[in-house]
Design a protein that fits this description.
By secondary structure, this protein is mostly helical. The protein is built from 7 helices and no strands. The protein starts with a helix and ends with a helix.
């Protein structure tokens, strides 16, 4: 429902200003109030929490959640959600110094965003790729 959507958007806003504790709290609220059958909601809170955990240095759990989000997202036809899940996994992989894997995830995100025609996300993903060594 709308409460879960509002919670995940707040969580993502806190991530944008590097406040992972608040982001994790709001992603937890999203998970609690959202319907488990709402796949997009499940994907969003998982990737959001994964990035929050990675910002706090909890990299093992962050990678597990990010991979779960990618697996769930890749079973949908939601190109933007799939791309964002791959981007979140790339963020985590970069922090654990697995640059080649991170780059591959960003390349997949770029492909998905291009396929969707999401120009803002394409540019954001290209900028992220430029920061990850080949």
């Amino acid at each position: 429902g709308w409460q879960a959507s509002a919670a995940v958007y707040l969580a993502q806003a806190f991530l944008a200003v590097s406040r992972p504790d608040e982001a994790e709290r709001w992603s937890q609220i999203c998970a609690e109030v959202g319907d488990p059958w709402d796949v997009m909601n499940e994907i969003k809170w998982q990737w959001t929490r994964a990035v929050a955990l990675s910002q706090r240095g909890e990299l093992t759990e962050a990678e597990r959640l990010a991979r779960a989000a990618v697996e769930m997202a890749d079973d949908t036809d939601g190109l933007v959600f799939r791309g964002e899940a791959h981007t979140a996994l790339a963020t985590v992989l970069t922090l654990v110094d697995r640059k080649a894997e991170a780059r591959a995830e960003l390349e997949e995100a770029l492909r998905l965003h291009q396929q969707k025609g999401a120009t803002v996300l394409v540019e954001r993903t290209r900028a992220a790729l430029a920061k990850v060594p080949a």
